[in-house]
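Action item from last meeting closed. Structure (358 res):
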């Protein structure tokens, strides 16, 4: 595999652009194009279908994928909860013999996540690693592993692996759902890589970055599946630009954070799919009334664009997959803000790609 920058200024930008390919690899031979059947192999499917309760453990960006996955699994009727791995170890939640603990970890080497998985194993609970690295500690120590197949990710900021983690979560959810075939969903999954390409080809993220680079802070809001994307948008922004950024559940804004909002703090509103996005438009109006600039990241299913100063569009897809597309736009905005500020994008200060201490 080519580990050079391939003509891009940074690994991060290269990896953002590798997302269509990474997602194709994640789907390959797992989704049957004709029948729509999803096949993750007998062992893994048996493990997943045997789960009455699912606990997800992860850190950072992978935790945002875990939050997304927990919501997805709950929508299939399976009680599921995401935990920050270090907190899971500090205050382990109750479990039963039908609990499955899923560790989401790009590297498979994050100490906090490994600790949480070991805690689960000590209790005799089944564990599954969703990871990018074949042969990593997580993949070796867990009973099962689901590889996201993104190829090497060199930039400290996780980009293509978040998208692939979200797609992998959808494959697990489809197995949980156990409908045998999943025609509509399979075609939405099949189309996702080219829709990511469309976002990459047509994005105006650089213009948005240019307009707001001198802001005092950046806020991100979203609801439902868009909520983890809001958190991820903020993490990416703070990680590579060193600017103050926060992500909130859209409905929480009025419970305190709204006091921070001024004309100097752009609010990125992620508004996709069907999950309550009309209510998020209401939150956007509240923000607009406080004269904060609004950047809507939207698939056009609502009229949020009417209340926005800038719009980052994404193509329409299944509500569950839209967050991947929205997140690509936010990755690009953070990248271009960091580039204009002259940050060390691939190796931000104080951070390591893989955090091997607790
Ligand atoms: C993401 O941009 C960060 N570099 C960081 O939050 C990362 O996702 C976290 O440390 C977890 O890493 P892992 O997925 O390898 O376990």
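Sequence:
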């Amino acid at each position: 595999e080519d580990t050079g920058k391939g003509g891009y200024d940074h690994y991060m930008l290269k990896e953002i652009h590798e997302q269509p390919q990474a997602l194709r690899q994640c789907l390959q031979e797992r989704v049957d194009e004709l029948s729509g059947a999803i096949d993750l192999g007998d062992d893994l499917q048996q493990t997943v279908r045997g789960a009455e309760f699912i606990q997800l453990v992860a850190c950072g960006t992978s935790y945002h994928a875990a939050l997304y996955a927990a919501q997805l699994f709950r929508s299939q009727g399976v009680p599921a909860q995401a935990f920050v791995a270090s907190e899971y170890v500090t205050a382990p939640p109750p479990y039963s013999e039908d609990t499955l603990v899923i560790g989401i970890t790009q590297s498979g080497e994050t100490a906090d996540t490994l600790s949480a998985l070991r805690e689960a194993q000590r209790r005799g609970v089944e564990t599954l690693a969703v990871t990018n690295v074949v042969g990593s500690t997580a993949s070796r120590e867990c009973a099962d592993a689901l590889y996201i197949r993104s190829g090497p990710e060199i930039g400290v900021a996780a980009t293509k692996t978040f998208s692939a983690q979200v797609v992998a979560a959808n494959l697990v959810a489809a197995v949980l759902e156990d409908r045998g075939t999943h025609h509509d969903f399979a075609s939405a999954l099949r189309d996702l890589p080219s829709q990511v390409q469309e976002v990459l080809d047509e994005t105006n993220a650089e213009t948005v970055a240019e307009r707001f680079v001198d802001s005092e802070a950046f806020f991100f809001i979203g609801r439902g599946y868009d909520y983890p994307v809001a958190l991820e948008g903020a993490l990416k922004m703070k990680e590579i630009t060193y600017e103050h950024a926060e992500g909130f559940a859209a409905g929480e804004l009025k419970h305190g954070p709204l006091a921070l909002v001024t004309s100097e703090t752009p609010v990125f509103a992620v508004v996709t799919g069907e999950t309550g996005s009309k209510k998020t438009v209401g939150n956007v109006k509240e923000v607009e009334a406080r004269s904060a600039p609004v950047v809507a990241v939207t698939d056009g299913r609502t009229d949020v664009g009417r209340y926005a100063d800038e719009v980052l569009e994404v193509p329409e897809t299944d509500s569950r997959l839209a967050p991947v597309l929205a997140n690509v736009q936010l990755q690009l905005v953070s990248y271009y803000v960091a580039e204009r500020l002259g940050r060390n994008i691939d190796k931000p200060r104080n951070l390591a790609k893989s955090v091997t201490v607790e």
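Note appended to the action item: DSSP finds 13 helices and ten strands in the chain.
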